[in-house]
Write a structure and sequence with these properties.
Length: 145
């Protein structure tokens, strides 16, 4: 699930960068025709870029630091709605789903065996195997698939 969160987070950030381009060009055009609010649109565009970069960093951290990643993705998701409004809908949805998947994703790493290794068992040099008298047994469970 965290691999999917990685893809969705980076995809949401890329869509956010496209929103920044559209919003920036809109701000330039509105400013050039001397309409009211052109400078505000340009200022919001820089906020959108900042939040898209936060989303990109958050998307990249989903595998290694999922809780930090989900926090950054939520900040980017909610902040984007304030800076870009309705244009942030697709990017915000992708970032929100990525944050939920990163936070709630199962740990697919190896975990120690619950019990069953007798006291005084002979261990291998690397500490990953133990001898039960007839064969070598793994000291950790394989990954869940």
């Amino acid at each position: 699930m965290r691999g999917t969160a990685l893809g969705l987070g980076i995809g949401g950030a890329v869509v956010g960068i496209l929103v920044w381009i559209i919003e920036g060009l809109t701000g330039v055009v509105v400013t050039r025709i001397h309409a009211y609010g052109g400078h505000a649109i340009s200022a919001h565009a820089w906020g959108t870029l900042t939040l898209a970069m936060i989303g990109l960093v958050g998307g990249g951290l989903t595998i290694g630091k999922p809780r930090l990643s989900s926090g950054l993705l939520i900040i980017a998701c909610l902040g984007g709605f304030f800076t870009a409004g309705i244009y942030w809908t697709l990017a915000g949805a992708l970032l929100l789903v990525a944050a939920l998947m990163a936070f709630l994703g199962r740990n697919s790493g190896r975990r120690p065996m619950p019990s069953g290794i007798p006291a005084g068992a002979m261990w291998s040099d690397d500490g990953r195997w133990w001898w039960d008298g007839t064969r070598w047994q793994p000291a950790v469970q394989p990954r869940d698939r």
